[in-house]
Each structure stands twice: as structure tokens, then as C-alpha cells.
Amino acid sequence: MADAASISLDPEESGDEPFLLARRLPGIPVVVGANRHDAARVAIEKFGVTAIVLDDGFQHRTLAKDLEIVMARAQRPWGNGRLLPAGPLREPLASLARADLVVAAGALGLDGAREVVDAVDEHAPRVPVITATLVPSECWEAGRMQPVGLPELAGRRLVAFAGIAVAGGLRLHPQEHRGGRRVAGRVRRPPLVLGRRRRATRRARHGARRRGAHHDREGLGAAAPALACRAGPLYVLSVRLVLQTGEPAWRQAFRRACP
User: Fold this and answer.
1) 81's torsion region: left (phi>0), alpha (psi -120 to 50) or beta?
2) What's the pTM?
3) Where among 57, 89, 105 does a domain terminate?
4) Number of folded domains in the chain?
5) Distance of CA 60 to the CA centre of its chain
6) Closest alpha carbon to 99 in 79, 124, 130
7) Domain span holding position 155
């Protein structure tokens, strides 16, 4: 996907998340492969890496891992509590005991993540729970791949859609409203994968005709050229995770894994 010098594949070939990782981490090799064990071997033998970060790798067992971090939504983290395909869980909650850290995203404090805290207390009482929020980090106009200052969007009416599993996350950032940016509407069934671009584009165009512009979270924005909207510009909002509680536990876990 990418070596220390350049990005060799586009989002169509590599997937949107690897492309974004390569874009956000210049100089860091990003390796994509159906077999993670083989991909890790390539990373070690070709690039000489001393640390490997697996995205979405909690269920992966062919590599011995030094640090396991579980991310969960602060609100309704386990859905209906059932395993796939009846529910959203990939493993029973008892598997939380394998984790070194559990991060509840979307909460300022532990009181805002009671379901996560209660589940960890029951199934993995020794595992620290950390809370975090997502905050805007940058914005860019996808058609021209040009950065846009967030103040430039002040006063505009935007229809927002998300390339993530829960569109409600768009409501977690009151500072977007305080800055004068209003979310005039949102797609209630967000496009989760690039294969749904056509439907997402139709919805975005419909919203843009009514509201003049639209904007997306960074994940789907990797496919920006294919989502270009004739009726209005497509803005991609990048976000970053900010720890709100538990930073000492976070640092201690990384010191143990990377002495």
C-alpha cells in the first residue's frame, strides 16, 4: 500500500482506511493483505519495522500481540447484546478479559459510559476503562483536494453524512454549532462501505440541491473523486480521538508494550 517514501495504491485498490492511514502517516509503511501473518512478515523483512499496529485486530489470533485495545461506543456499546449475525458482537463480552485497555468513545467521563464500565467490571475487572471524544482536526474540499479552514464554513447550511457505522456520532461535537456551522440534515442510514457510493451520491446530490453543500467524515472521503457532487462541493471533516480520562493508564500500557 505505502512505503516510507510514497503511496502506491489508491482507495479503490487498497481500501479507504489503509489509504487514509498512509496519507495521515507519511514515512510509515502501511501493508495490506488478506493474510495478516504474511503481511506482518513483509513489514518486518522488507521494511525492518520493530512495531506493528493492527487495525481492527482484536479477533486476530495468528500474531502474538503485546497490547490489545478495545474501542467501544459510550452509548449502547453492545447493541442488542447478541453475537453476529443476530447482533453486532463478534465475541462474547467475556472476551474483554483479553484486553489491556477499553476505550469508550463519546464520553467526557466514566459516568457517560456506564454500560461500558459495567460490562468491564463484570467480565474484566482488572482492565482500565478510558473515555475519549472525537474532535474536528481539519477539513478539506474533496473535489480539488484543497484544505479548508473550518471558519470558512461558518454560516453555511450543510447536509452531513457519515462513512461510519453510527451517524449519531455527528451530534457529538457541539463546537461545530458554536462556530456557526449548522447541520441542516443527515443521511439516517450512512454509507458504510465504498460499494454504496452510488446510493450515497444520490442522497448527497438531493441534499445539496436543497441546501447548497454537504460534508462527510474522513473515511468515506477517501473516495471523494467518485462522490463528487455536481450541485455543491463535498467537504471532508477529519477527526481525532482525544482522551478525556485515564491518560496515565494509557501511557502505562504503552510503556509496558514498548519499553
Assistant:
1) left
2) 0.73
3) 57
4) 2
5) 19
6) 124
7) 134-240
Instruction: Report the alpha-carbon distance of residue 36 to residue 184 in Å, rounded.
Output: 42
Say if residue 232 is in the same domain as residue 145.
Answer: yes
- Asked, for residue 70, whether it belongs to a domain, the answer is no
Alpha-carbon distance 8 to 219, whole Å?
19
pLDDT, tens digit only, all 259 positions of the chain: 555 556 666 656 666 678 777 877 888 898 988 899 999 999 999 999 999 999 888 988 888 999 999 999 999 999 999 999 999 999 999 999 999 999 999 999 999 999 999 999 999 999 999 999 988 888 888 777 788 888 888 888 777 776 655 545 544 343 444 444 443 333 333 333 333 344 444 444 444 444 444 444 455 445 454 455 555 788 888 788 899 999 999 999 999 998 8
Residue 122 lies in a domain: no
With respect to residue 103, please indicate whether it lies within any of the assigned structural domains: no
